[in-house]
């Protein structure tokens, strides 16, 4: 029975990944933050020695871009130093284990190259993007040093389990509250902001596939489609048979000072080498998320 070790297993991706791996008859070790704080190198080493995993999925991160900006030191400790600690622990204690790192499209910032692929230069415009860029470079370095260390450059990915601070879930929750008469208005930041939004369940399959590939590499996981926050609003309200007009207001305090742009991914490498492709459509994903909130 192969053994997988997941950091950040309590999050959206970690929970879906654990389910996927258990379905594939893995023993899944999913330590909580208290049992394996990735910022504590000694604790990481102990946890890895105890588990002796075949595969490690490093998903633990401060993942909300706005929250990350509020406490950059704490965020860097998790997103960058945590990754370095894990690399070091693996080198010392399980050098044959395969490591997957959840990187982010935020590494690209506001790229001129559209869509982006694995060769697109990193030029983050947020401190969160910078943390992921630095960690991804550390993963590449570990790979050059002989560790099986792969990265998924993950574009936005959503599901009914998405955290409430992210815009898709925030909108779908508000629609359900408005439908139930518990809320009148929904305040949003920049509704013209566009993202490449996929389904988290497709992306965790990509993580597993990346570790089954014979060589450790970087892979972009994306849909290749851009949609706006306004598109999410319109689909979610329509799913609840509501008119978004009269409910949605723009709140300048929710606008971000440094907003990435043109983040749309070219996942043809993952398609070619891993046979991966996103199955879910944007519309059906937002409809499903809204129906889950209505229920
Ligand atoms: O924002 C705009 C906001 O917070 C999406 C994380 O998984 O994907 C995610 O980061 C867009 C942005 O996700 C509101 O300005 C407008 O343009 O859902 P989000 P994100 O920042 O794109 C990347 C790839 C990651 O790696 C991250 O970990 O929506 N937006 N109005 C708003 N966003 C929020 N949260 N709330 C609003 O009211």
Structural account:
With 295 residues, the protein is an alpha/beta fold. It has two domains: 3-158 and 197-224 and 263-274, NAD(P)-binding Rossmann-like Domain (Rossmann fold), CATH 3.40.50.720; 167-192 and 226-259 and 281-294, UDP-galactose 4-epimerase, domain 1 (Alpha-Beta Complex), CATH 3.90.25. It is built from ten helices and twelve strands. The protein has helices spanning 12-23, 41-51, 65-70, 72-93, 127-144, 167-179, 200-212, 229-239, 268-274, 282-294, and strands at 3-7, 27-29, 55-58, 98-104, 148-154, 157-158, 186-188, 194-195, 198-199, 218-221, 227-228, 248-250. Helix 5 links the parallel strand 4 (98-104) and strand 5 (148-154). Helix 4 packs parallel to helix 5 (127-144), helix 6 runs parallel beside helix 8 and helix 8 (229-239) packs across helix 10 (282-294). The two termini are 38 Å apart. 50% of the residues are buried. The mean pLDDT is 97. The structure holds ligand F7E.
Termini separation? 38 Å
So what's the CATH class of the largest domain? Answer: Alpha Beta
Spatial strand order of the main sheet = 2-1-3-4-5-10
Beta strand %:
5-15%
CATH superfamily of the largest domain: NAD(P)-binding Rossmann-like Domain
Question: How many strands, what sense, and barrel or not for the largest sheet?
Answer: 6 strands, parallel
Bound molecules: ligand F7E
Q: Could you state the order of secondary-structure elements as H and E?
A: EHEHEHHEHEEHEEEHEEHEHH
Radius of gyration equals: 19 Å
Helix count equals 10
């Amino acid at each position: 029975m192969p053994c997988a070790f997941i950091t950040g297993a309590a999050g959206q991706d970690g929970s879906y990944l654990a389910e996927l791996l258990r379905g594939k008859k893995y023993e899944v070790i999913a330590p909580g933050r208290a049992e394996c704080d990735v910022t504590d190198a000694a604790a990481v080493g102990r946890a890895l020695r105890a588990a002796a995993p075949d595969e490690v999925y490093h998903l633990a991160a401060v993942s909300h871009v706005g929250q990350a900006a509020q406490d950059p030191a704490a965020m860097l400790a998790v997103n960058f130093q945590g990754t370095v600690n894990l690399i070091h622990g693996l080198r010392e204690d399980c050098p044959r284990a395969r490591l997957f790192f959840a990187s982010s499209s935020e590494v690209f910032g506001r790229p001129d190259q559209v869509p982006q692929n694995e060769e697109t230069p990193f030029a983050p415009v947020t401190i969160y993007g910078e943390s992921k860029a630095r960690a991804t470079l550390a993963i590449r370095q570990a790979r050059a040093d002989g560790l099986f260390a792969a990265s998924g450059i993950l574009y936005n990915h959503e599901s009914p389990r998405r955290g409430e601070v992210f815009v898709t879930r925030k909108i779908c929750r508000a629609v359900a509250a408005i439908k139930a008469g518990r809320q009148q208005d929904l305040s949003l930041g920049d509704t013209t902001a566009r993202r490449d939004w996929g389904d988290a369940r497709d992306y965790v399959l990509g993580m597993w596939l990346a570790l089954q590939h014979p060589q450790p590499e970087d892979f972009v996981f994306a849909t290749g489609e851009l949609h706006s926050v306004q598109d999410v609003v319109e689909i979610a309200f329509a799913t609840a048979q509501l008119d978004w007009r009269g409910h949605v207001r723009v709140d300048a305090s929710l606008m971000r000072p440094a907003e990435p742009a043109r983040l749309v991914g070219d996942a043809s490498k993952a398609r070619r080498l891993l046979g991966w492709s996103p199955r879910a459509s944007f519309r059906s994903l937002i409809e499903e998320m809204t129906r889950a909130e209505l229920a």
